[in-house]
Each structure stands twice: as structure tokens, then as C-alpha cells.
Amino acid sequence: MLIRFVARRCLQAVPLLLVVSMLVFLLIHAAPGGPLAIYLANPNVRPADIERLRRALGLDRPLWQQYWTWLWAFTRGDWGYSFSDGRPVVSRIVERLPATIELVSVSLTCALALAMPAGVLAAVRRGRWFDRATAIASMAGVALPAFWFGLLLQMIFASGLGWLPSSGRATPGERDVVEEA
After folding, report:
1. Is-contact 81 88, C-beta < 8 A?
2. Which letter does DSSP use for residue 61 in this model?
3. Sequence-ordered list of residues with C-beta below 8 angstroms from that of 66, at least 6 positions apart, any chain
């Protein structure tokens, strides 16, 4: 029963992902300058270079052909090359994966360490001030955009208190985290 439910949900996700990818693809092309906007803003890039790049990337073809070419390459794992250093995008993602997993693990651990006791205490003291404060805090946590809340925490713990570095990461035991800020 559970397997059928999960399979059905996965099958329902496929059309949704296709629609979302199509919308994002169209939005990138609808933006001023399109996918080559970064080159158009550079005064050192000549119009002939832009046109050559447009042909090399297939941006001179109809939009539907561009989308299907991109989708086929994406499903094969060919995610292209970085404009900044020319390396494959997949290798850049893979090299940043350990830091991402570390960040997610620490944030989930902290969230559970705070939320579980607060939820139990709020349930025990239902209707009192702690229950209301916990409900307000949880609603604010859901309503606030994650990027904004992350910047707020960065300002508090890195800039304000100086406890953590404002960027980068340190291996535990190598250097004092406080000294890196």
C-alpha cells in the first residue's frame, strides 16, 4: 500500500517537474539579455563574439528545440560547463556536496534539538504563555524566507557576537572557530 502511494506520488511529480523546468527555461529567455546577459554587460565582449557564442550554444534555434536539447542533455547527466571557469557543472556540484550535507545535518540536528523539547513542553502546558510563544515562533519560522533568516543569523552570530565565521567553513580541531571571524 505504501509502495503504491510513493510510486503514484513520484509519477505525479514528473509532469510537475516538466512544467516547472519549462517555466524556468522560459523565464531565463524572457529576462533582459537572456542567457547571455552576463556577456552583454561586459564592454570588452564584441557583438561578433556574442553572435558566435549564441550559435555555439544553440541559442539561435527555436525555443522549443533549445528546451528539448537541454532536457535530453540534463536527463543524461550532461549539465554543461561553468561560465566562470569552464569546468563541468556536475564536478562543481560534487565538490560542494560534503559542505552542503554537513550544513543540512547540523541544521536539522539543531532544529530537532530545539523543536522536540519545545513541542513537548508546549503540549504539557497547553494554553499557557509557553504554548502560545512556541506557536508564534513556529509560525514565524515557517513564514520567514530561509535566505532572510539565514542572513539574520549570520549578522547575529558572525558580525554581532563574533562566534562564527561569516563565510567559509572550518574543520573541527584545526583552528578555533572564534579566531576565524
Report:
1. yes
2. S
3. 25, 29, 58, 59
For residue 93, what pLDDT band results from cuts at 50, 70 and 90?
A: very high
Q: How many CB atoms lie within 10 A of CB 122?
A: 19
- Record the pTM: 0.61
> Residue 88 forms beta bridges with which residues?
81
98-135 pLDDT tens trace: 988 988 998 899 889 999 999 999 999 898 999 999 99
Binned at pLDDT 50, 70 and 90, residue 12 comes out as: very high
- In three-state secondary structure terms, 88 is strand
| Cell numbers for 51 | 553572435
How far, in Å, CA of 131 to CA of 121, rounded?
Answer: 8
Coil, strand, or helix at residue 59? coil
168: left (phi over 0), alpha (psi -120 to 50) or beta: left
Cα distances (Å, whole numbers) of residue 105 to 48, 54, 108, 161: 48, 41, 5, 23
Gap between the Cα atoms of 158 and 181, Å rounded: 7
